[in-house]
């Protein structure tokens, strides 16, 4: 029987499948969760923590990304570990050291019982090519951003079944998209499940989702290639690398403005002023807390941002 491995942030799903386990990105249940966390800073980690500890999420073990893009996950992950769930801590190298990355991947493979199915590397590589093609489709205005976002965000765990996930990818509708402005969504993904639909309703076509793009951009067909690729996970390294990557994508995708989503009590919120200083685009900063449908206040702000972009030269 295949075990389900909860993952708190991006780790190579290729490796989890190659070890014959099924990854479950614990964040993916958060936007539609009804849990009111007992104690919290960031609602993302607090909600998945309580989902697991209250037995509402069925996992056999947990991999906590303890060094990389999130510090709250380290504490909430340890609470889960103390409740008896076998837990492994995974660290990205801030200095991009390929040897350190390779040692972390080897440690992860050991925790998962070793590689048993190398073919999964190629299978998932093929799916990521489909993901990149979908991403390009919305850049070319031939797919709705909300459909593409829901596909790309699922690349963290491929919905637990790569074959079924490929069918999901194949059914994303191709359609001509009408909009008034092209925007990029940077930062952690919004905790609001309807964010992209709401943005679309105000004529904002989201042509870049920063974090989900990392999910499809990184990969490899063996351990060495994985180490060389994942050490460049932009969220886990110096912010100068992220700025460079974002600038390149904003230019390539011809965006008119940037929405920076920030999460209450997340350290990434402090990056807002850095992005504002280094990105030469109009920036709207929004913040969420608990998982809820988008608030009326957020809708008003998106509408005003859209109107402002429309009249800009
Ligand atoms: S929003 Fe920030 S604090 Fe919360 S899980 Fe994501 S990175 Fe961690």
Largest sheet: 4 strands, parallel
Overall helicity: 40-55%
Beta-strand fraction estimate: 15-25%
CATH topology of the domain at 3-111: Rossmann fold
Q: Please tell me the CATH architecture of the domain at 3-111 by its name.
A: 3-Layer(aba) Sandwich
Shape: globular
The CATH class of the domain at 3-111 is Alpha Beta
What's the alpha carbon Rg, rounded to whole Å?
A: 19 Å
**What's the count of strands?**
8
Q: What is the N-to-C order of secondary-structure elements (H for helix, E for strand)? A: EHEHEHEHHHHEHEHHHEHEH
Low-confidence segments, given as residue ranges, are: none
Bound molecules: iron/sulfur cluster
- Overall average pLDDT: 97
User: Helix/strand/pairing class, anyone?
Assistant: alpha/beta
Query: What's the tally of helices?
Result: 13
For the biggest β-sheet, the strand order reads 2-1-3-4
Distance between the termini: 59 Å
Q: What is the topological layout?
A:
Blueprint: E1 3-7, H1 13-18, E2 21-25, H2 43-53, E3 61-67, H3 72-82, E4 87-91, H4 98-111, H5 119-139, H6 145-152, H7 162-170, E5 181-187, H8 195-201, E6 204-209, H9 210-217, H10 223-230, H11 239-252, E7 257-263, H12 272-278, E8 283-288, H13 296-311
Parallel strand pairs: 1-2, 1-3, 3-4, 5-6, 5-7, 7-8
Helix pairs in contact: 2-3, 4-10, 5-6, 5-9
Residues 42, 44-45, 69-70, 72-73, 188, 263, 266, 268 line the site of iron/sulfur cluster (SF4).
């Amino acid at each position: 029987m295949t075990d389900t491995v909860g993952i708190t942030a991006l780790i190579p799903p290729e490796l989890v499948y190659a070890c014959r386990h099924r990854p479950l990105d614990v964040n993916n249940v958060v936007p539609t969760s009804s849990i009111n966390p007992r104690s919290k800073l960031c609602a993302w980690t607090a909600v998945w923590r309580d989902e697991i500890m209250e037995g509402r999420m069925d996992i056999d073990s947990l991999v906590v990304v303890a060094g990389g893009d999130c510090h709250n996950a380290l504490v909430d992950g340890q609470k889960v570990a103390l409740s008896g769930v076998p837990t492994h801590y995974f660290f990205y190298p801030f200095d991009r050291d390929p040897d350190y990355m390779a040692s972390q991947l080897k440690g992860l493979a050991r925790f998962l019982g070793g590689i048993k199915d190398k073919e999964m590397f190629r299978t998932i590589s093929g799916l990521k090519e489909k993901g990149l093609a979908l991403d390009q489709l919305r850049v070319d205005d031939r797919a709705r951003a909300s459909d593409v976002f829901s596909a790309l965000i699922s690349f963290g765990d491929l919905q637990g079944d790569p074959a079924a996930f490929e069918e999901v990818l194949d059914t994303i509708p191709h359609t001509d998209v009408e909009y008034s402005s092209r925007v990029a969504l940077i930062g952690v993904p919004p905790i609001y499940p309807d964010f992209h639909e709401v943005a679309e309703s105000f004529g904002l076509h989201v042509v870049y989702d920063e974090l989900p793009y990392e999910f499809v951009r990184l990969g490899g067909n063996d351990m060495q290639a994985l180490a060389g690729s994942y050490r460049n996970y932009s969220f886990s390294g110096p912010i100068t690398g992220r700025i460079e990557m974002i600038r390149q994508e904003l230019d390539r995708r011809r965006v008119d403005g940037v929405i920076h989503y920030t999460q209450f009590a997340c350290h990434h919120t402090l990056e807002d002023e850095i992005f504002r200083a280094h990105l030469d685009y109009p920036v709207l900063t929004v913040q969420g807390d608990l998982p809820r449908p988008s608030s009326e206040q957020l809708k008003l702000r998106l509408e005003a941002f859209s109107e402002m972009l429309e009249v800009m030269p």
